[in-house]
Predict the structure of Arsenate reductase ArsC.
Amino acid sequence: MNVLFLCTGNSCRSLISEATFNHLAPSGWHAISAGSQPTGKLNEKALALLALKGIPTEGYYSKSWDDLPVTPDIVVTVCSSAAGETCPAYLGQVLRTHWGVDDPSHVAGTEEEIHAAFEQAYAILRARIEAFLALPLDELKNDKVRLKAELDRIGTLLP
């Protein structure tokens, strides 16, 4: 099962989601990330945070949703801009859910305040990913209506 984490720029929140999901996911589940308007580079603070958490990022890069290596089964938008966009037609009737998280790369302030914003975004995304992976995935992958309801519920969780 392939999960696409989608954000407009594909540099920060979607990267954190992709790397964290792949770090925690069971065999047979894989995450990718992309953006509708990718920046073309990954956010250095997001990369540093993931390294601090012991989550590998080798091989990840900022990419367009037009350049996906696989067609996702599930699309999780992590920013409000991406949630309102129409996914490319080739994605078909993919299961979609929205897990909005404030963009820590837009926070201005001291290094401590900026780091705290990245930690908060990571904590929210990790809690939601852990809740996702705690679901009875073998059962739900064949029940799209129930899976969608569970994913929508998870999108409201805060750590």
Q: What stands out?
A: Residues 2-154 form a domain with the Rossmann fold fold (CATH 3.40.50.2300). The chain has a mean pLDDT of 91. The radius of gyration is 15 Å. The CA atoms of residues 104 and 118 lie 5 Å apart.
